[in-house]
Design a protein that fits this description.
Pfam families: Rieske, VanA_C. 17% of the residues lie in helices and 32% in strands. Helix 1 crosses helix 5. The protein is an alpha+beta fold. The strands form 4 sheets. It has an 8-stranded antiparallel sheet with strand order 11-17-16-15-14-13-12-18, with helices on one face. A 4-stranded antiparallel sheet has the order 5-6-7-8, with no helix packed on it. The chain folds into 2 domains: 119 residues, Rieske Iron-sulfur Protein (3-layer Sandwich); 202 residues, Alpha-Beta Complex (Naphthalene 1,2-dioxygenase Alpha Subunit, Chain A, domain 1), CATH 3.90.380.10.
Length: 352
């Protein structure tokens, strides 16, 4: 955990981007999991992901052209379909015989739902249905066609581990999130007590009532409750539910490589009147997330010296769980056995 670089987990689905970022007939080049990925959407609207390297001379395919069906390399005009299979080599002489189907740039399994494009990074070339995570999780209360009302992304110059530990840290808000509109104050810390239990590939802060004095929660109705889940490979899902409306907040932590990360925050809401407030809400989200981004960059200066770090019980327990989950995922894979969640049910207490 004190290292600048993190081990990247494979055999899992990662959020590549919101659906809205990939337009019909267009492509989007990204580095994800230390691999060059070219996302796209064909003429029928179906999302795909191929490796962004031409197998002929190694030039990135993003410099070529996409006609809605095939990607053409800019160097020698080789064409690849949306499954990554070569379909044309212009320089082929009429007397040459080449089996194009045996040439591929490589492709990644893709699932698109709830306004997100998920990409699967295999452990050893397996299909998702043959792996340990057949499909990505669904968000509660919303249909597959429901897109997020709000979405932002900030690049974090830190490993996925430090991004995850910073975002799940329950005690930093009073010192990091110090905007005038946020109620936290380091001089007015209050005791907190939450019950936690293991859940699928992670743990959950068990559903509990939210303070009735908070005006924002009253918009959802009476008896507003929340549940927060953390799960591999880097998801935080908060489900806030009232008797009138519900909101789901999703934070995704997707590695660019071993020491750079994309952090996204997105919200789904059943209320139809969010639209006019989007510019203000998006600004506040960016301010809040940028405070987390800046502090992990500052932390990096100290981590350069590879110090021995100290974690304390309760306040840092979730950080320990994160590292234990990663270790168990890798160990269970190498031993070809079922994943055994190391998290145990317990109550945590801290001041914040």
């Amino acid at each position: 955990m004190n290292n600048l670089k993190a081990e990247l987990l494979r055999g899992l689905w990662y959020v590549a981007c919101p659906s809205a970022e990939v337009k019909p007939g267009k492509t989007l080049a990204k580095t994800l999991m230390n691999e060059p990925v070219l996302l796209g959407r064909d003429s029928k609207g179906k999302a795909f992901a191929i490796k962004d390297i031409c197998p002929h001379r190694g030039i990135p395919l993003r410099y070529g052209q996409f006609d809605g069906e095939t990607v053409q390399c800019c160097y020698h005009g080789w064409r690849f379909d949306t499954s990554g299979t070569c379909v044309d080599i212009p320089s082929t002489h009429e007397y040459q015989t080449i089996d194009y189907s045996k040439i591929s740039c490589g492709a990644y399994p893709v699932i698109e739902r709830q306004g997100l494009i998920w990409v699967y990074f295999s452990e050893s070339g397996e299909a998702p249905e043959d792996g340990r995570q057949p499909e990505p999780p669904r968000l509660p209360d919303f249909a597959d066609e429901d897109e997020p009302k709000l979405a932002i992304m900030l690049p974090f110059v830190c490993s996925v581990d430090h991004a995850a530990l910073g975002l799940m840290d329950p005690t930093h808000a009073a010192f990091v999130h110090t905007s005038w509109w946020f109620k936290k104050n380091a001089t007015k810390l209050r005791p907190k007590e939450k019950h936690f239990a293991p859940s699928d590939l992670g743990w959950a802060m068990v559903r509990h009532k939210l303070p009735p004095q908070n005006i924002a929660y009253k918009l959802l109705g009476d008896e507003v409750t929340t549940e927060i889940r953390y799960r591999l490979p880097g998801l935080r899902i908060e489900h806030i539910q009232g008797d009138k409306h519900s909101v789901v907040g999703l934070t995704t932590i997707t590695p660019i490589d071993e020491d750079k990360t994309e952090v996204r925050q997105m919200f789904w809401a059943s209320m139809g009147w969010v639209g006019p407030f989007k510019p203000l809400l998006r600004h506040l989200m960016k301010v809040f997330l940028d405070q987390d981004r800046r502090v992990v960059i500052q932390q990096r200066e100290g981590l350069e010296y590879n110090p021995k770090l100290m974690l304390i019980n309760d306040a840092d327990t979730q950080g320990r769980w994160w590292m234990q989950l990663k270790e168990e995922w890798n160990r269970s894979g190498s031993e070809a056995r079922e994943f055994r969640n190391p998290v145990k049910e317990r109550t945590l207490r801290w001041m914040s």
